[in-house]
User: Fold this.
Amino acid sequence: MHGYLFALTAVLHGQTRPSGDGEVPDTGIELSPPLHTSALANRIGGSIWPSKRQQGETAMKLSLIACALIGCLLAAGLAHADDNVDQLTPMPLGKVIKVLLAPADPDLPWSMGAGADSSIKWLSQGVQDEGCGAYATCRRGEARISVGGKELKNLRQKIEPVSWEIFIHSSMPAKFPPQVISLQPHCDTVECEFSIDHELKSAGFKVDPVCRNEAMGQAVSGARISMPGKIAYLAYSTGHGSGGDSNSLDIFLTNGPAPKNLCQIE
Assistant:
């Protein structure tokens, strides 16, 4: 990679750097007679090295190229993830929440959704402590989720089901249990709505409203959800945009008092 950048810098300058002994390296252009770098500089009326302005312009060009390359790599990664969505088995949203509220193995507190009763495809190898954004630890997965017996859809070369991101995260090291589970569909359009009331009741959850907040074109409804052996707090967020509404879920893994940031809008 460094070799490519050096070569690219040389092309952008239209110049090459002198070799270690002070001689101009062989560029394929014969100079007769051979000139020392100082003589060459005098011949062309100035220094052969780029000015500060030229260096700044080159640095800007390299930054733009690097950003373009990174963007292409990210886009390729997302496209690759979406290529596998047809291979996933859809699960009702209520069942997904139910599966995620208890570890598959009591000795592995991060193993929720990793049991035989789950069709979530986990992208993380165990618990990761890098690539978690503002959090210390996380675990990522994807799933096909149905709401009311139907799936959200994307229109691409053909109609495709929408994949959902499952993001388990914590501000603590991996030896501690996770704190929050986030679920969000990846829709191509702004409008990406789904409802949860029927799904929670169909899965056997008791729902007790706790709070509601609206600000800056967003709304959050918080509730305590429970069933025998399972208690958590759920934040159902709605973003209002000119192209439509979009929803997401955050499940707070605590059976104590409601988290203070349950209905917080950031």
